[in-house]
Amino acid sequence: MIELVSAQRCVRCDICVKVCPTNVFDLGPDGVPVIARQDDCQTCFMCEAYCPTDALFVAPLSGPAPEGSDYRDEAVMVDQGRFGEYRRWIGWGKGRTAGSRLDTNHIFTARLRP
User: Fold this and answer.
1) Mapping DSSP to helix (H, G, I), strand (E, B) and coil, where does residue 36 land?
2) In the chain, where the domains are located
3) Alpha-carbon distances, residue 2 vs 34, 99, 112 (angstroms)
4) Distance (Å, whole) CA 6 – CA 34
5) If we measure between CA atoms, which residue out of 95, 108, 109 comes closest to residue 47?
6) Rg value, the chain, Cα
7) Known PROSITE patterns for this protein (predicted)?
8) Which tens digit of pLDDT belongs to each residue from 34-52?
9) What are phi and psi of 100, to 5 degrees?
């Protein structure tokens, strides 16, 4: 289930909003997606797989992580290399330069073209 959106890593591309099949995210006033309907998350990992900057963490749980869980602590997940982990497992974006025209995420790069 989606647990974290890192405002520091996010480039405000709103790809996660577009690829989520259950409309879990809303855009915050600063353009950073917020988890608005976590209970609707199907743990499909699409948002994490498509994120060009590894700004999302989806926990391998079918429900929300309990209060105090490391899955809800951004610093711990960064230290453990968990942001973008699913994308790496499936082999998406090898050698990419996140947020650049060299990124192999076809949804993101299509948005960069004039």
Assistant:
1) coil
2) 2-112
3) 10, 21, 26
4) 10
5) 108
6) 13
7) 4FE4S_FER_1, 4FE4S_FER_2
8) 999 999 999 999 999 989 8
9) -115, 175
Say if pTM beats, i.e. exceeds, 0.90. no
Q: State the residue for tokens 């289930």.
A: 1
Beta-carbon contacts of residue 88 (< 8 Å; ≥ 6 apart) = none
Joined together, the tokens standing for residue 37 give 């309907």
For residue 93, give the amino acid letter.
G
Q: Which amino acid is at 26?
A: D
Token pair belonging to 25:
């995210």
Tokens linked to 66: 């309990």
H helix intervals, 2-105? 15-19, 46-50, 74-79, 85-90
Rounded Cα gap, residues 95 and 48, in angstroms: 17
Place of tokens 């004039």: 114
Residue 58 token pair? 């989806």
Residue type, 100: S
Q: Using one digit for the tens of pLDDT, what is the confidence trace for 38-94?
A: 999 999 999 999 898 899 999 999 899 999 999 999 999 999 999 988 888 888 765
